[in-house]
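Input sequence (246 aa), recorded before submission:
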Amino acid sequence: MEHVDHILIVDDDREIRELLSSYLKKNGLRASVAADGRQMRSFLEANAVDLIVLDLMMPGDDGLVLCRELRAGKHKAIPILMLTARSDETDRIIGLEMGADDYLAKPFAARELLARVRAVLRRTRMLPPNLQISEAGQVLAFGDWRLDTVGRHLIDRQGTEVTLSGAEYRLLRVFIDHPRRVLNRDQLLNLTQGRDADLFDRSIDLLVSRLRQRLGDDAREPTYIKTVRSEGYVFSVPVEISEPRP
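Predicted structure, token format:
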């Protein structure tokens, strides 16, 4: 049976929930709704979803709190499209820093949201170059870290797991698959996210900053991801394929 993508809409505005749910269903997707964080948590405990449309401004736990919670828990791999009534770039940056995969400001056309949903799903499932070659080893080792490509998380030398959002994982995989090669922002956008979403210029820089934090990399003197002035970024350590540890 063919899989139909299931979208969960989390928004305190009933009219928006019903409008988006109806539109997504008319365009071949499954859609469910939640009015707040409590309903979202309850729904996720009993149902599998492929993407969450999450409103930023909600009473109680707002979208940023819920996004951070999702990224830290067992639903960390679910892509998130964040909505907000404010168009301030600061909110957009904070949303991406919390782990959102894309951002859409209200008001918006339903067809634009549908296009964003499909683009995020496509990017989330897109395999970085050479994935089929390196994936066989399951664990990729570099510096003080190992990357579990099945669980999609980092493991330090003490065996502690560090969770990654979908966007962080894709960016790290691109760097790992192109070690010691300078990649400019356009190349990183194409390799990690494609050109089908209207992402603002700072999105790659924010992702690099987030990934450096996960790796414990000092932005002023980074060990792993170095900035090449006027050119882009380079992953500066060698990568080895290793077998999973018991």
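Checked by second reader. The CA atoms of residues 54 and 82 lie 5 Å apart.
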